[in-house]
C-alpha cells in the first residue's frame, strides 16, 4: 500500500511543476483587468493519448503549437457527448486580434488534435465578434501569406480548413481582400482541377465574388 502512495505522489509532482513554470510564460491579455491565469498545459488533460506532455520535447511545427503548449491561447477544447466546443477564458471581444487571429491562422496547418479543432473554431469565433471587420483588415498582409500556406498544404484536411477560413475572412473584410486575391488564386485553381475539391473550391470562389463585389 505504501508503495502505491509513493508512486501517486511522485506522479502528481510533475504536473504541479509544469503549472509553476507556465506562470512565468507571457500570455495574451484579455482586457485591462487582470489577465487570465495560465492554466496547466491543455495537453495535460485534454487528449493524453495524442500528446504526451512528459515525452521528449520536439520542436513545434508552428507558432500556434508553441503558444498553445504554454497555455497562451485564451480558449480550450471542451469535449461534448455529441460535438466539441471551445471555452474561452475571457470574452472573445476583449482579446486582441493582433496577434491572436494570425496565430490561429497559423494553427490551421496543424495535423494533430486538439490543435486542429482549436485553431479552426477559434479563428471562426474570433471573426464573429463585434468590430471584427475593423480589427481584421489591418492584419490582411500577415493573414494572407498564412492562408496561402494552408491552401498549398499537401494534407487535404489542412487545405479544407484553409478554404473555410478564407471564406470566413472574406465575409468579414469584404472588398478589402481583393488586392490580396492574386496571391491565393493559383492554389485555388490547382485544387479546382481535382474532382473531389471542385465543388468546394467553386463555392469558395463564389463567396469571394459575392463579398468582394464587381472588382473581384
UniProtKB/TrEMBL annotation:
SUPFAM superfamilies: ARM repeat
Feature: compositional bias, Pro residues: 29-41
Lineage: superkingdom: Eukaryota
Biased composition (Polar residues): 1-11, 19-28
Family matches, as Pfam families: ParcG (PF10274)
Region feature (Disordered): 1-44
Name recorded for this polypeptide: PACRL protein
Amino acid at each position: 500500500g505504501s508503495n502505491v502512495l509513493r508512486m501517486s505522489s511522485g506522479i502528481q509532482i510533475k504536473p504541479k511543476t509544469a503549472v509553476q513554470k507556465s506562470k512565468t510564460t507571457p500570455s495574451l491579455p484579455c482586457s485591462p483587468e487582470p489577465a487570465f491565469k495560465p492554466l496547466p498545459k491543455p495537453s495535460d488533460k485534454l487528449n493524453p493519448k495524442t500528446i504526451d506532455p512528459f515525452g521528449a520535447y520536439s520542436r513545434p511545427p508552428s507558432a500556434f503549437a508553441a503558444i498553445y503548449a504554454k497555455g497562451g491561447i485564451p480558449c480550450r477544447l471542451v469535449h461534448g457527448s455529441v460535438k466539441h466546443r471551445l471555452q474561452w477564458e475571457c470574452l472573445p471581444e476583449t482579446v486582441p486580434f493582433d496577434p491572436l487571429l494570425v496565430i490561429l491562422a497559423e494553427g490551421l496547418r496543424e495535423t494533430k488534435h486538439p490543435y486542429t479543432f482549436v485553431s479552426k473554431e477559434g479563428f471562426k469565433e474570433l471573426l464573429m465578434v463585434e468590430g471584427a471587420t475593423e480589427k481584421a483588415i489591418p492584419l490582411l498582409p500577415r493573414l494572407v501569406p498564412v492562408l496561402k500556406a494552408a491552401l498549398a498544404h499537401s494534407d487535404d484536411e489542412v487545405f479544407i480548413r484553409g478554404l473555410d477560413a478564407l471564406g470566413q475572412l472574406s465575409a468579414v473584410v469584404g472588398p478589402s481582400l481583393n488586392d490580396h486575391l492574386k496571391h491565393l488564386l493559383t492554389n485555388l485553381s490547382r485544387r479546382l482541377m481535382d474532382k473531389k475539391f471542385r465543388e468546394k473550391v467553386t463555392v469558395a470562389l463564389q463567396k469571394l465574388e459575392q463579398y468582394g463585389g464587381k472588382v473581384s
